[in-house]
Amino acid sequence: MTGSQYATRPARPEDADFVYRVSEATMRAYAEATFGIWSEQIARDSFIPATHRILHYDGKDIGCIELLDLPEAVQLNKLYILPAWQRQGIGTRILNDIKALAGALEKPLRLRVLRVNPARRLYERLGFRIEHETPERLFLTID
User: What sign has the CA pseudo-torsion 33, 35, 41, 44?
Assistant: First the structure.
């Protein structure tokens, strides 16, 4: 990964199929383990171009991010990276950049993760703590 950089661009309506494929590749198994089903319609309906960014790495589209600047916090709703690009430090880089953005805005950074999703370990390693939880999800924050 030396010298490689990630970049993002605003999502466009024509990115809907790509975002769906990334969502399915990264979340289907966890949704099925948690809820017993995967809903293509729910996944497709969650794509709002105005709130999403497409993640590029080495000139390829490799994932998507949904980040909201709310009055009380910066909310990370999605950080989905295609499996072939995971475990290479890209997610850590992105999270550290988002943490810096939230810090510059003087807001906490919040996210949620399904309990069965091993990404939880990454979030905890980076200093996120559990703010509250439900049987299915953990809601994490970092100041």
Answer: negative
Q: Write out pLDDT tens, residues 52-102.
A: 999 999 889 999 999 999 999 999 999 999 999 999 999 999 999 999 999
Q: Which tokens hold the place of 129?
A: 């703590």
Calpha distance 133→122 (Å, rounded): 17
CB 24 within 8 A of CB 43: yes
Cβ-proximal residues to 84 (8 Å cutoff; 6+ apart), any chain: 62
Output the furthest CA–CA distance in the chain (Å, rounded): 41
Q: Please, which residues bridge with residue 60 across strands? A: 57
Q: State how far the Cα of 72 lies from the Cα of 60, in Å rounded to an integer.
A: 34
For residue 125, count CB atoms less than 10 angstroms from its CB and return exposed for 0-12, middle for 13-18, buried for 19 or more. exposed
Q: Are 78 and 48 in contact (CB under 8 A)?
A: no
**Model confidence at 128: pLDDT above 70:** yes
